[in-house]
Amino acid sequence: MATKPGLSCVATQRKKRWRKAMSTTEALLARLNAVFDSARPAALAVSGGVDSMTLAFVSHLRLGAGVTMFHAASAAVPVSATERVRDYAARHGWDLRIIDAGEFADERYLANPSNRCFFCKSNLYGALSSLSQAQLFSGTNTDDLCDWRPGLKAADANSVRHPFVEAGMSKADVRALAAAHGLTNLAELPSAPCLSSRVETSLRIEPQTLRAIDQVETLLRGELSPETVRCRVRRAGIVVELDQPTLSCLSEDSRARLSHQICAAFGGPRPVHFQAYVRGSAFLREQSA
Description:
Elements: H1 5-37, E1 42-45, H2 50-63, E2 67-72, H3 79-92, E3 95-99, H4 107-110, H5 116-131, E4 135-137, H6 151-157, H7 163-166, H8 171-180, H9 184-187, H10 207-224, E5 229-234, E6 237-242, H11 244-248, H12 252-265, E7 272-276
Parallel strand pairs: 1-2, 1-4, 2-3, 6-7
Antiparallel strand pairs: 5-6
């Protein structure tokens, strides 16, 4: 049976787009490999998110035993992220070390100022520098440079290199790289900053609060399968942010039932509000004059 000309044209165009995407990914990987080759041995901070996990995967392909992965496990890291790191390390043969970066012993971090991330990363990179003399890598990409990220100052102070930035790779490029290596679960993994980012600026960071946040977000993912979920802790109470389609489908009965479970996670009654997701809405940055 002859193929219809229209369908043949569509198939050809799809093949061209696929080849172009693969060519772009191969070029980006070549740039990354050049970065890896210039930094043997290397040590990589792996948080469990798409950026650092993808960087860990491709750096290990290139460097093998020449790269060590470090994961800082704490109350600020979702349990699922630590499990993901352990699982990948076991399946792919990474040299993985689980460490305590020490941020919960730092009052500057616990006070939760607007530049809390600086103190978090200072503790992380300081701990890594004390454990390894290798070149430190982070999963920062070019999109991150467009945001206000105090942690990048800590990276500079500790001579941390950012391979994705050096290779000119955006978040979309990182996801494409993960997909090209068959890492579909990473390529589609939603962005998820550390749990401390859910706590409104200047409210003290407490481990039990972060564990409750993780418990609530895990509950909501299981119940609602949202595209985006954030459990924010504010002075006025708990604010659950969901992507608009998920929020629109949430009935009053469901809100009441979930509110009860959320209060239980936080150890008692408190106001619970459901809102549309707004990026960084618990974060109050100091305004310059």
